[in-house]
Automatic annotation (TrEMBL):
Transmembrane segments: none
Pfam family, one: Peripla_BP_3
Listed CDD domains: HTH_LacI (cd01392), PBP1_LacI_sugar_binding-like (cd06267)
Protein name in the entry: LacI family transcriptional regulator
Biological process per Gene Ontology, one example term: regulation of DNA-templated transcription
GO molecular function list: DNA binding
Record flagged with keyword Transcription regulation: yes
Alphabetically ordered keywords of this record: DNA-binding, Transcription, Transcription regulation
InterPro entries: HTH_LacI, LacI/GalR-like_sensor, Lambda_DNA-bd_dom_sf, Peripla_BP_I
Chain ranges of the HTH lacI-type domain: 5-59
Translocase keyword on record: no
Length: 337
């Protein structure tokens, strides 16, 4: 029968942290020699399988995702990223597992249950969680997130926000609102900055009321509905919406339909991510396309890279569909019979 002694068991027997045991077993710095030898001796007496130490060979990878990224608003994006990672793992004979996490979790213990050799963490994570990840003595790559001291891979969010807003300006729109979520998330901050840069370059200055940020709540879709209601109630409501992602854009379209506001004749709408539902919408949604599977594969490549690249940007592109067309372009597509 295979030995089941875990790093957690050794840590308890030694009275040290899981991270300290991991450092000792892998010969990494950060421990006194006395502590290292004591950990190794106890590991041996407990029957730990030292064959797990693979001299850098990754056999198990753990994909981490914050519980905040719930099914309705995030998994259409992150499931594709995770599939890209899974593709790369399969090609390299690496087993991948998945762990949803939150700030209240005992992170080191949960991760140790999977016995990974490396981690890929996707999307928003609290500072406290990133601090815990730094302590784990495991290779970590962040995807759709940036933080100092970590290799990171992201879509070019700034450029995406810029080209989405520039497109709306080119359609003759002047009151372009931003419908967003909490800017705690790096990607959203970058999209806002791209949006603002395009407005600045066009010489437009819009009141702060044209930028709505839905609070970080569990029912994000209801918060977006309320944000959209607020925008449409302005004395001069927007004639265009740049939404932080496609789910938010689709919510905006539903609100407009409920109020009898025509898209794109009365208000143009652009999203971000190009999830499958964007093309199925009526009207079909203009969006900034991200190659989500490639994003996952890039995160895997960065994890294994010996070039020590720290911040990869994946190019994005604008996919123009009916939801953002000018009145002229829309009438050309749908001439009066």
């Amino acid at each position: 029968m295979a030995n089941k002694t875990r790093i957690k068991d050794i840590a308890m027997a030694c009275g040290v942290s899981i991270a300290a045991v991991s450092r000792a077993l892998k010969g990494q710095p950060g421990l006194s020699e006395e502590t290292r030898q004591r950990i190794l001796a106890i590991a041996e007496s407990e029957g730990y399988d030292f064959g797990r130490l693979r001299s850098g060979r990754i056999k198990r990878l753990l994909f981490l995702l914050h519980r905040e990224h719930n099914i309705a608003s995030a998994l259409p994006f992150y499931s594709s990223v995770m599939l890209g990672v899974a593709d790369a793992c399969r090609e390299n004979d690496i087993a991948m597992s998945f762990l949803p996490i939150g700030p209240e979790d005992s992170l080191a213990e949960l991760i140790n249950l999977h016995q990974p050799d490396a981690l890929i963490a996707a999307g928003y994570l609290e500072t406290e969680t990133l601090v815990e990840l730094r302590k784990l003595a495991l290779p970590v790559t962040l995807v759709d997130l940036w933080a100092a001291d970590f290799p990171c891979v992201n879509p070019d969010n700034f450029h995406g926000g810029f080209i989405a807003t520039r497109h709306l300006l080119e359609q003759g729109r002047k009151r372009i609102a931003f419908l967003g979520h909490s800017q705690r998330h790096y990607s959203i901050r970058q999209r806002v900055e791209g949006y603002q840069q395009a407005l600045f370059d066009a010489g437009l200055s819009l009141p702060a009321e044209y930028r709505v940020e839905a609070p970080p709540v569990k029912d994000i879709e209801q918060a977006l509905v309320e944000g959209m209601d607020k925008l449409l109630a302005l004395p001069q409501p927007p004639d265009a919406i740049f939404a932080y992602n496609d789910i938010a854009a689709l919510v905006a379209m539903r609100v407009c339909a409920r109020k009898g506001i025509n898209v794109p004749q009365d208000i143009a709408i652009v999203g971000f991510d190009d999830i499958d539902a964007a093309a199925w919408a009526h009207p079909a949604l203009t969006t900034v396309a991200v190659d989500k599977r490639e994003l996952g594969r890039d995160a895997f490549r960065l994890l294994l890279s010996e070039q020590h690249e720290r911040n990869l940007l994946l190019p994005v592109r604008l996919v123009i569909r009916e939801s953002s067309l000018s009145a002229t372009a829309h009438s050309q597509l749908h001439p009066t019979r």
